[in-house]
Structure prediction request, 759 residues.
Amino acid sequence: MSDLKTRLELDKILERIALKAAFSLGKERVLNTEPSFSTLIVNRDLKRLKDAMDLVSEHGVVSFGGISDVSASLSLASKGAVLSIEQLVRIGHFLQGSHRLYKSYLGLDEKYEALDDLFESIVDVPQLMSLIEKSLSDSFEVLDSASSELREIRSNIRRMKSRIDSETASFLSKHKDMLSESVVTLHHGRQSFLIKPGDKNKLEGSILGTSSSGQSVYFEPAFLDKLQREYQGYLHQESEEIEKICRAISADVSQVSEQLNANLETCALLDEIFAKAQWGVSNEGVVAKVTEDSLSFVNARHPLIDSKEVVANTYTLSPPHRMILISGPNTGGKSVTLKTIGLFVSLTLCGCPVLADEASVMMVDNIFVDIGDQQSIEKSLSSFSAHLETISHVTAKATSKSLILLDELGSQTDPLEGESLSMAILDFFRETKSWVVATTHFSRLKKYGTQYPDILNASVEFNMDTLKPTYIYKENVLGESNALYIASQLGIKQSIIEKAEAYKKESTFEEDHLLEILNKKIKDTEDLQEKLLLEKKQLEEEIAAEKIAQNELVASIKKEKMDWLEAKEAEFTSKLDSLELKLKELNKISTPTQRHQLKKEVESLKPTAIVEEIHVGDQVRLKQSSQVGIVEKIERNNVFVSVGTLSMQVKLKDLIRLGKKPVKKKTIKTHRIDRSQTISMECNVIGMRVAEALPIVDKYLDECILRNLPSCRIVHGVGTGQMRTAIHELLRKNKSVASFALASISEGGAGATRVVFKS
Prediction:
């Protein structure tokens, strides 16, 4: 099968897909992918791929953050080994990563049923995850919270270190006259003082050595020796307690190592599936459908050809055809066509997307490939012998469900014998009813393909003007080699071309002439069809443009109508207001008869018909107040209109219809935090004033909390202690801080503070 992957260049495609995988096990699974010939497995893998591509299209790349290959550590733990701090932290990261992966999938609104079983098989181990988070930091350190004993030991270490610092400072102050230099130095790993040789016997303690100049001796006072011994004892206790903690956590890992291995395998499988899905989405691929007896790739594009240069072709093979015979000139794209069909079938059987607009693939039980030069010096095989050896193997193994790809069948030997052998081989495969795609130059093979209804003749186009292939695949067309025409265009003498034409006519049968005439007619028909399709497209564009113009005209008329109505309404309102004012004045001086006549005149100005019919759900405007509302109910001439939160009863004649109620689009507000940026595990404010440092520390704490860091370190220096006091006061007020304490000796001692956040 590795030979199949190489010949179809499937291995190169898998390498590109593997780049999309998140961690090493996912990459390995992609690279080791092999075509499956089980219908159940292929259908299952394609359903998973389809759901994964839908998920990636809707929600973007799935995060596998924190997940890595911890199989070696799990294996050691299962055998009772004590894991290192780094190994345990990586297992903790894996637990957190797999937990986040599962939770993020559960949080999706859409359902992806084909992936449910995989995500649901990820089992959380919250106790172990919590224990590791509580005990170990991301910087591979054991935290004080790992055990009460460790907390007490480290408290003693800090106390002892503080005492040593205090006693040392006191000694430097009291005996500065005896010191060569007022510094504490290390001699063979032990703290000591440089004192003058003449004073070495004046103090109780030990002489550790003499300086190279002889002007000073390394002196360790008795009190410092005792303190350092006690300090080293605490450090030894700390080391033993850390080993004890690691042993206990390793034992817990051992108990669930089997489940964690299963989780790891599931994560690797999901990583493989989503790598394939991301590759498919980014390259506009599709998932092929599995069929019984047909193959179709619509606008197929070979993945290894630049997307700006690749020529998209449609390939089909369906009943009654079971064989495609492709002809055409050299470098015309026959082999590319053959490889594309074989590659797309293989990708489908590997559970990968294919680059096409639509795709369907018949289920096969094997794929046999005879492509390229297979000569072997080691086996003393010529190219022709190697081809025959392959054909021998294929004829022995092929069935009616097999797909066979044959490039330049029968070539590299005498043309007459090669043609005859090729036709006999194709006869054999026709009898076995295998699926076959073959390429050829032979004229007799082209004619052979026209004699049987189960053979689909096809070719690749060649531009005779530019003498370059177009790589366009055409069905039901026989390809021509056009060797003589190409030779004449490339400068071969005309006398040679004419002689070659004569020889060709001597060896060409009458059927060949008929075949050439038939091919010309087929080409003329195709050219006519292309012209008709172009005219159809132009007509459709004209119709679409006419529809747009018509819609614009209707909209314009409606607007003019509404403008006219509004103008008339304004005019009427103005006249009505004037007459009503006049009526009020006349009420004071006129007779009842005059008032009645004027009222009839006012009523006659009011519109007697409704301009547009109003329905429930329509948007309307109230004439008197110009308020806009929605019609809720209509009872004869009374209409109930919802205006804001109010419901009003209005006469039908007092409304103007504006149109249907506008549909509000549902908007989804999202807030995304960019967690891709890294953050330092410490904040250094040495050299700053307190007023400068506190805002920086406060902002740094917020960033740590935002990124869910379990702990951090703040380096403030020893100094007068004013900076440390101010920072500690800030930490006490921060509700997200679980605890804080001076850092260990290795982290800076009294010059730094270790902060632990609430989980």
DSSP finds 21 helices and 23 strands in the chain.
